[in-house]
Amino acid sequence: MAVTRSGVPETTSVPDGTVRFLDIGGLDLEAGGRLPDVTLAYETWGTLNADRSNAVLVQHALTGSTHVTRGASDEVGWWEQLAGPGAPVDTDKYFVVSINILGGCYGSTGPSTPAPDGKPWGSRFPLVTLRDTTAAEARLADALGIDSWYAVLGGSLGGARALEWAVSYPDRVRRCAVISIGASSTAEQIAFAQAQTLAIRQDANFNDGDYYGGPEPEAGLALARRIAHITYRSADELEARFGRSAQGGEAPLQAVSLGERGRYQVESYLDHQGTKLVRRFDANSYIAITEALMSHDVGRGRGPLKEALARAKAEFFLAAVNTDRLYFPAQSHELAAALPGDVPVHVIEAPIGHDGFLTEIGQLNAQLRQNFFA
């Protein structure tokens, strides 16, 4: 099903894995702001069946896009071990949807998109929480004719988005997979997040967020990515890959002045990660989405955690990476203990750390097929 920007269904076919756009109207926000006209970008794969019971929502993480798996083109997706023809989320069987989060920069309304006056929102973009993003996505589901999801799943921020769906709209989520995240962002996670947003805000080119049309805060965004990436990888992973080795052709211990020394390999690696993100992501969107993740607390305003989770009617699937030092496995176990019934925590064994939810998701294929996608 193709949908125009006005939300009117079209009869023409759109190839799988093609970005589409939907205008969902104005949105009042939890923190008190308002967006008068919201557009969401999304991709779909497969066909929605006659009774509309086979829709699966796959939620991306912090800097992810909607391109979960390849479609009509050969562009590789970011979770192809999980979704695609013959995969656990089989696009020959399920109608798979992925939505660019509100505040993002891959097509959805965000700081870089035009405000009503035609200028980028920039510094005027309001604070958006995960409850706001979920409310926006519910309108897209309405437009697609999806009353309830067969499953909603995601990892890291995507897992938080999935959990919020299950609690905010209990009658619309039949299965929910929450991978590599707990019930809320902890003080430490908020602290790491603040360091990243400050790295951007203190860039000389940030201009309070109104940098569009001029120099962009590339150094700040790259630094934010470096900070984040350290938390995405385990200490053992960094030690095994780089140790104390010098970057080729550079000498970390030879310099007349502080600014002249060469780099260690691990420094070069982090520089590379920062440069890659700068080429594809907007700094304001990084702040907006990071602060949405800071807001993650499924129990906020809903009573004790067990009481809040009792609202959900979904069957849950939880998983954690054994070496994750950003979202510790203990948080997944705490979430499991607060859910009704006996919900096991499946383990991804990966030396890499948090990013194992992306690179090693295939370890859960058998469990996912058995529990969710039989």
Structure description:
This protein folds into 2 domains: about 1-185 and about 295-370, Rossmann fold, CATH 3.40.50; about 190-290, Rna Polymerase Sigma Factor, Chain: A (Orthogonal Bundle). It is built from 11 helices and 12 strands. The protein has helices spanning about 130-145, 155-170, 185-200, 220-230, 235-240, 265-280, 285-295, 305-310, 330-340, 355-360, 365-370, and strands spanning about 1-5, 10, 20-30, 35-45, 55-60, 85, 90, 95-100, 150-155, 175-180, 315-320, 345-350. The strands form 3 sheets. An 8-stranded mixed sheet has the order 3-4-8-5-9-10-11-12, sandwiched between helices. A two-stranded antiparallel sheet has the order 1-2.
Question: How would the blueprint of this fold be written?
Answer:
Blueprint: E1 2-3, E2 9-10, E3 20-28, E4 34-45, E5 55-59, E6 83-84, E7 89-90, E8 95-99, H1 130-143, E9 151-155, H2 157-168, E10 175-179, H3 187-201, H4 218-232, H5 235-241, H6 265-278, H7 283-294, H8 305-309, E11 315-321, H9 329-338, E12 345-348, H10 356-359, H11 365-371
Parallel strand pairs: 5-8, 5-9, 6-7, 9-10, 10-11, 11-12
Antiparallel strand pairs: 1-2, 3-4, 4-8
Helix pairs in contact: 1-2, 3-4, 3-7, 4-6
